[in-house]
## 1
Amino acid sequence: MYGRCGALDDARKVFDELSERGIGDVVSWNSIVATYVQAGDCRNALRLFDRMTWDSGHVPDAVSLVNVLPACASLGASIQGKQVHAFALRRGLSEDVYVGNAVLDMYAKCGMLDEASKVFKQMEFKDLVSWNAMVTGYSQVGRFDEALSLFEKMEVEKIESNVVTWSAVIAGYAQRGHGHEALDVFRRMCLSGSEPNIVTLVSLLSGCASAGALHQGKETHCYAIKCVLNKLDNDPGDDLMVINALIDMYAKCGSAGVARTMFDLITPEHRNVVTWTVMIGGYAQQGEANGALKLFSEMVNQANFIKPNAFTISCGLMACARLAALRFGTQIHAYILRNQYDSVMVHVENCLIDMYSKSGDIDAGRVVFDHMQHRNTISWTSLMTGYGMHGRGDEALWVFNEMRKAGLVPDGVTFVVVLYACSHAGLVDQGIEYFDAMDRDYGVVPGVEHYACMVDLLGRAGRLGEAMKLIKRMPMQPTPIVWFSLLSASRLHGNVEFGEYAANKLLDIESENDGSYTLLSNIYANARRWKDVARVRSVMKSTGIRKRPGCSWVQGMKGTATFYVGDWTHPQSQQIHEVLTDLILRIKALGYVPQTSFALHDVDDEEKGDLLSEHSEKLALAYGILTTAPGAPIRITKNLRVCGDCHSAMTYISMIINHEIILRDSSRFHHFKKGSCSCKGYW
DNA sequence: TTAGGGTTAG
């Protein structure tokens, strides 16, 4: 009775008393073991089971084994589990379907699927639980194809699935990001007459979230209100789980507003750490990184304190990485160090590497990397990506070699990063070598993303003809990213012919991308083909496509300041413009000539020069100079690619100011120092 | 006495 009520101490007292008086029997041993398992204290459950087997004079029966096996499973204690299995075989208890199922499940949970499958095949009598344990076992170790084929076999053998089977299959699809398939299974489940429950809905919502299927997510929401939520015998924790899954679904499907409304409807004392995390993560992934950081601060400062877990911290760092919010990111790093996050540290540390490198301080990312106790493939590739973004190609390739020495096998993503690093550092020959080697030496077949990297690599280096030849040689259809790489390279090298070709291909495939139109009109402007510029602009106008406004932000003393082109809204605008005018006068004396083609207007050169001088990145720089301590770097982030004229101006300005200018644009980092830029023209 | 569930990184 005490055991069933969760009163572990009381149950133990009664058990010890019975033992002392010598009147304990197998049932009392079984009950106490079960009580420990239920309380989550599997270690003590195992200890008691051992005492029962060796010291008590009683012989474990089928119930004892069924009690102790889940404890082995949840500890991953496969050696003890195997001993229990051997005991069952010796005692002839393995015929019992309960015992068989528990053994099978123990092997599955310890990741020993081949052992589990052997047990499954040898079972003379299988029930639905046996099949379900096998299906979920395969699914959870990532052998989802085998899980599915078992699921299909169940149909063939006319074994009727129950809610557990259906939910497990839905969850399997959802975990792999195959939301549409999850939805299909859900429909089949409803047709089969099986009634979805909370677990089904939570799994399904996770699938909708990963598929971005808002409509089906809403349908699931209706179903939840009608049939599942707020039922009298529901555990309130289960209801919250569904609500959390709904918030996550709405946020990931682009309805952060709806998600926020649901979040606000839950009173703070009812929210748990996942409620906060899904909302923060939703903002961070939907490009509302400012909202994410605001909520993160609110979470750690609220009266009803809930400690952020590794997931929350990762989401916060992701938001910092997007915004290049170095100061906030550093504060989160300090928070981690103060608050002991021992478990699942790898994930958080990987986020730290990413945050530091995307915020302009790749050396700090390297320090995090060097201090890691355990590293996985993502740790190595994150560091490599960082070096690549900063144009430090040699160091990126060094990381690649060290990674191989550490025994890690490069995969498709690794090679994207390697090629990206070569491209951004102008290491053309090495890039070609790696591209040739990836299939030959590593067995990684180049995908469309690797071809895109190669087009980028050759294109940046001005080898446009070779890039075009490579596209023609591709064994698959080029995706927009391939043509976009060719188009960017054509813009960089002022090649109208290739630019037009790539732009036409791109507009055939996806006509909504403002970036393609802007690049093409830049190419025409550079060639002074104003009629073509006007034509592109009129197409944009008639199709309603608008160029995204350029926007830059800089971390000043009083927080982050944001600027748009020609922006006069900042309270210090007057001063900012004075600084800028003065700087431009001074660099003109050093040889700077405004590159008017970037102004995109068919007006006379003097006026174009004026428009250029108000580009957002220049305004951000002037503000940075006003608010940054002498000698400290100025960190600017831009949402689009830096304009060529601004790039040239910043190179000159870095000769006359006592700051390094660290600029992150949508493509990479530029470090301007003493008259040169780290990108060496490769942007 | 056995089976299923939500949030994170390249």
## 2
Amino acid sequence: MLTISQLAAYAGVTVRAVRHYHKIGLLPEPGRDRSGYRTYDAAAVVRLIRIRTLADAGVPLARVQELLDAGPAEFADGVQEIDKHLRAEIRRLQDTRSRLARLATGEHLALPQSVVDYLDRLRGLGVGERYIELERDAWIMIAAQVPHLIDSVIAKKHEELDDPDMVRLYGFFTGELDWPADDPRIVEVADVLERLMIRAVEAGAAGGDGFDDQFVALMDSTMLESAPGAELVLAILKERGWRGWTRIERVPADRLGTELPPP
Amino acid sequence: MLTISQLAAYAGVTVRAVRHYHKIGLLPEPGRDRSGYRTYDAAAVVRLIRIRTLADAGVPLARVQELLDAGPAEFADGVQEIDKHLRAEIRRLQDTRSRLARLATGEHLALPQSVVDYLDRLRGLGVGERYIELERDAWIMIAAQVPHLIDSVIAKKHEELDDPDMVRLYGFFTGELDWPADDPRIVEVADVLERLMIRAVEAGAAGGDGFDDQFVALMDSTMLESAPGAELVLAILKERGWRGWTRIERVPADRLGTELPPP
DNA sequence: ATGGAGGGTTGACCCAGCGTCAAGGTCAAG
DNA sequence: CTTGACCTTGACGCTGGGTCAACCCTCCAT
């Protein structure tokens, strides 16, 4: 006959755990010797080892009890199920490992690959890290709100970058971003933007861009929040008869002065 | 700006978890809008995703906090450590899978391989499952109490099985085991055992078997508890001047009648 | 016989990491 | 104005034990 600590040591568990299993009725209370010590037999060893094997597999103790007290068919089914869980868990941990490896480096975890690629393209154009971070944060906000649209939006952005004027536009964002309000480059930026807008309108953007009003408002407000000076540029363009940002519109002369809806 | 559920959904956690992270100071409380709702920015998204990546790797939240607020060197060290843990955990789960596969089948989990092999050898000799189970339970008890000795004991048992008389002895245990006290086979068993004992003594077993008294007592009492009828056989042998079981002794004529120590 | 080590006994409280109500206040749409 | 989907705080529950605390048993050496 075994004492509780002999039993526990052989099965690789603590004495406390064995007593816990008694308390919840998972392992039957054995007989006691005349001094009150529990005395275990081989059946207890076998049952305890079965308990541990299942518990190590992550099975809740209540389920362990069901399984051990069930027929062989149900038991086999249960074990199948547990093994499936184990395989999934192993795959999850392997995935976690690869995510962990990317933890230190960059924005890869917070953004879909398409956006990461887009930001890398901007870097390739010489855009400064300061501005890249602003863009990144804006894209994080957009991706968080409309994850299903993000890939198609980024695809449009890539198309836009095929236009040399767009490349020129991004070329402004290489150094410090806090331009004073009278910085002459602001007018240059507005000029480039106006050319882009004209071309966009000519290309038929007026017809509709496939996005609904809410999403356009989201894009506009996010970009306005993220890019310092964007308001200044928008003000200049408004004087010239343009409205919008994500969705470009020529403002009819009689409506000049109408505000954008508040972000 | 994001609401808490947008943030949570994007990071793949529950709203409740985000609030929990606020409560323990892991994720800073963001600003509120005029109605008291929390409003999150991109930095919160990034931090929350980092938190989840580490937490998914099994890192306690307190440790996550330390890591995220530490310098890059300490962070890299910590990630190394976590990855080591992950690899170990994956190996542990794979091991659990193979143990799980053996759960339904046999005694493999409760006994070392050497004993399993020994029991298989007994089966090969035609010993009945009823008796095998008794042996198995006895070996479980012995292995639980003196795991470091089990392999050498089993090795001795294997040697003993090379003796044809020992094979003959086990040959008795094929069917029912509850022999009546006057079953003639009991005398036959005693005869075979006596021949074995004589040969053992001649072979020099008297010199000492390398086991201490406590262990011999353990073997004796375990086998006596497990095998019905063993006491009868021992009684017959005692009349013939033998004592012991695990350790065989010729009892000098003047001490005939001396009892074995109580188990 | 006695004292100390090293078992054993019960009981009660404590932990992470949230899940799950409960009991409301807010917001957008119809 | 209502409805339904959010948001807020707060409190309790859960698993699988760990960690005292306070005491009893047994064995061994002295």
